Write the structure tokens for this entry.
Amino acid sequence: MSFDLPNSDSIQPDRVSAALLDDIRELARQVNELRPLSGGRVAAIHERLLGERVFNSNAMEGNTLTLRETLAVLRAGLIADMGRQREAAEVINLAASIRELQGLVALRDQWPDLAVLRSVHAILLRGIEPDAAGRFRGERVVITGARHQPPNVESMHRLLAGFERQFSSSLASGVDPVILATWVHWAIARIHPFCDGNGRIARLWQDLVLFGHGLTAAIIPARDRTRYYAVLSMADDGDFNPLLQLVAERVCSTLQVYIDVDRVGEAMPDWPDGSDWDWVVQEDNGERLEYARWCRVIESFRDCFRQQVEKFRFIFNGRPNIEMTAFEVIDQPMWRALRQRTIAATPWFFRVDFFVADAGAGYVFCFAENRLAASAAGPQSAFSGPALCVLETPVIFMSHRMEVPSPGALPFSALRVAGSKLAGIWLDWATGNETVERDLEPVTVADRFLTSVCQRFVR
């Protein structure tokens, strides 16, 4: 079936998309105020960006290497398992493609050039599919289960010529960069010009547009695969806002990492994989936006806490040793159910264990019903989403428990998201009285918690 590409300037952001674009501008402003970042921090961020981009983009297409294995291949340039040489080659080639595109960031007139697209694709499939690398497909392809099939070869060449013209025109007319990146991503995926590697090349060109406009990568987690393909399909039908929102959310998340690195003051460890989406919410755009912003703050807190754990390990020289185990952010249905108190579950976000020799103690940070701080903080509308509560838990394999603070003796009993920051809630378990401290940075919260526990071990 023949179709024509819509112009990128025909994409009209809805209320949620417009709010997320505003968030990007604000976060970009904050990042710009931090410049110049030290060379060491920039290098650390870029290394993490590279690892995350390669892992998630390859995993989206079925590569089974884990994030840790992907990073090992990037550092060593090879993999010991001879049965996974193709997957290792996919890692090396995608990283090489990313580095190739870094040289094109300032060459805006070359972004729409189909010859440049083919040259990068040749790197992407180098040594993997030599007959297809850098060549547009010469036959019809069928994607199993897809409602919208790629165009035939004749239509494909017509659409590619239109893509090149419209891309150049959009750059000249100053279309919003996130909207343009979304359109470029969709157009390449929809035209499907290659036999293999279309998704990866589409995400590469999306990020090229973003970096070329002074932003950063939109790293779509592989766990978002179901949502990702659903919003691509919606764009096929003419509704670009769900895809635009996904791209914008991921740009916001990456910008937030730059800000968090500056707050922590050191290079941060490998990023967690992100949220697990297996659904698409369309019915309540206000909730969609609130959940996206809540996730950004909660993920920032987890990143900062993980980095502070590394810092405290060094400060206390392993006494206590500290281990952190992170889980996934709750999805939007669970977030909604907890907020509305229609479920009594307490899903874990992460746990942290402290131990010396055969003694130790552990705490779990878990999501709970939206009921804390009602009396102390006034209207619930001041907060977003469910509370993040702290519970004491036994440490596996420890013969006896260390005398460390109970939840009532910690700096806070629970945390709530309030705007772009956290509120700490201390609950007096004896009286039931609550005290709330607002406007807390995630790194401050992590530092206070770890200090209160670690100091007990050194007394």
In short: The beta strands are 321-326, 348-356, 359-368, 384-393, 400-401, 414-418, 421-427, 434-440. The two ends are 74 Å apart (CA to CA). The first helix runs from residue 15 to 34.
